[in-house]
Task: structure prediction
Amino acid sequence: MEPTHEVLNQPPPLEGDSLYESDAALREGMAREGGAGFEAELAAAGRDLGSAESFALGRQANRFTPELRTHDRFGHRIDEVDYHPAWHAVMRLAMSHRIHNLPWCDAQPGAQVARAALLSMLAQVEAGACCPLTMTFAAWPVLRNDADLARTWGPRLRGTEYEPRLLPAAEKPAVLIGMAMTEKQGGSDVRANTTRAEPAGTHAGRDAFALTGHKWFCSAPMSDAFLMLAQQEPGRGLSCFFVPRLRPDGTRNAIHLQRLKDKLGNRSNASSELELHGAFGLLLGEAGRGVRTILEMVQHTRLDCVAGSAGLVRQAVAQALHHAEHRSTFGRRLAEQPLMQNVLADLALESEAATALMLRLARAFEAPESSAERAFARIATAAAKYWVCKRAPQAIAEAMECLGGGGYVEESILPRLYREAPVNAIWEGSGNVICLDVLRAIVREPECAPALLDEIRLAKGADRRLDAWTERLAAELADPADAELRARRTVERIALALEASLLVRGAPGFVADAFCAARLGDPDGVAGLQFGALPRGVECKKVVERAGVGRS
Ligand SMILES: Cc1cc2nc3c(=O)[nH]c(=O)nc-3n(C[C@H](O)[C@H](O)[C@H](O)COP(=O)(O)OP(=O)(O)OC[C@H]3O[C@@H](n4cnc5c(N)ncnc54)[C@H](O)[C@@H]3O)c2cc1C
Result:
């Protein structure tokens, strides 16, 4: 057949670049926050994850979604999830780069910072796999407090070789851990949990329990074990339990998968509903202090919500920048058109700010012995989780529009990034719940607000807009009137102050200046409500060039 036309004015695919080396904000932030020792690992992972093969795996894992097999052909319960081979390939690659455990294997300073960067790069390619890897990463800070479990499961948690088969943990090179808190009647308010844990003899010298009830969301049901909350009978209150997928005698634990969720995004990841029919479990932490015990895990998963969202935004913005470099309209490349430069610059600012905040936050997880860093992490994790995750869907939608109609088409990756984005705001504490948590930190832990303000004030004197913003914020934090009603506004202001302070201290002057002008109020006193409304005087072209991925 004769060709009817030549394909013109279409960009090449953005694949094959190192996700690390092509991202100046990530590289510089890594060095700033003490992750320089992991440069080689990051570069290698960035190349692996940025390859065309990895993007293809990401596409397949989300197109050919997991299927639940409750029974085998003979009618035995098996409760297995069948994943496409692409899912297993992504998991294998991610675990080989220690995305699930780097700081627990490598005591070198910067390991938390490097791991956050690794997770954010994985989220750019296949975000669904982040869930089981995050849970596994976040479970160790709880499990290491239990001498028995730390001894038996610790070495497997430090393994790097993915083994999807259901085998006793001792026979696996590495294991995965999931979390199941949410029930039908309540997710934020887990005190409403109705699952019961009853005494069931002893195992290896410690009390064993039988858990009966249900969980409404359990996102990594093929994990080797789970941390679950249940009401401890008789009358001890909500406790945390370690529930392995195999009982100590090697038979399947009574965790019955009911169905998989049909979700907006995150489709590669098999979020399930399950019932517990007297499942074997061991008490973790103190009886009746289940929320307190699992909070340590939740704090780490929140860090990953920030890293995951920062990654989603970065990939969307990279795609937009790349497209604009290669596409012309009305006789000029999009990247040269002033209004498009304004949109791209604004998106680039959002991405760089999210990256800087993610890396600084990760550094705070490095030093749990420092009380100032602990206080900072306590409040900044919640504030960053709220803001970075909330901004992601908006930024990704705008990046999608930069690609025009092609951005709305699956092959462009933008639809998948867009569908993925809201979940980070919903799970691990939905928006309002997170904002109320920030208030709780301010009121109940008096060292938190000063630690936060000290960090923001490290930039004092460098930008008058930031200085004024910080003083207003300090007054707002000290004002208890209508605090709950104002909580979103307060948290927004905290997050913007933190981002601005980090950029003022660490980013090139034109980036910091643009961010302060755009987010802290321009000279006219009106901040733009949509992306692309940066005020006059902002050096859009330079901001765009810095964020760009080159014209390869
Ligand atoms: C894809 C996916 C995977 C998940 N995986 C897991 C998992 O593996 N394990 C697990 O345990 N859970 C999981 N969850 C559940 C998730 O953590 C919960 O959905 C979330 O915590 C919210 O709980 P909920 O759905 O019961 O909503 P609710 O608690 O009913 O909250 C509904 C809304 O009300 C708001 N709200 C609640 N309290 C207040 C208040 N006091 N003031 C103002 N507003 C308030 C919340 O912010 C939210 O917006 C998953 C969820 C999704 C979507």
Notes: The pocket of flavin-adenine dinucleotide is lined by residues 179-182, 186-189, 217-219, 263, 266, 271, 423, 426-427, 430-433, 436 (CB under 6 Å). The first strand starts at residue 67 and ends at 71. DSSP finds 18 helices and eleven strands in the chain.
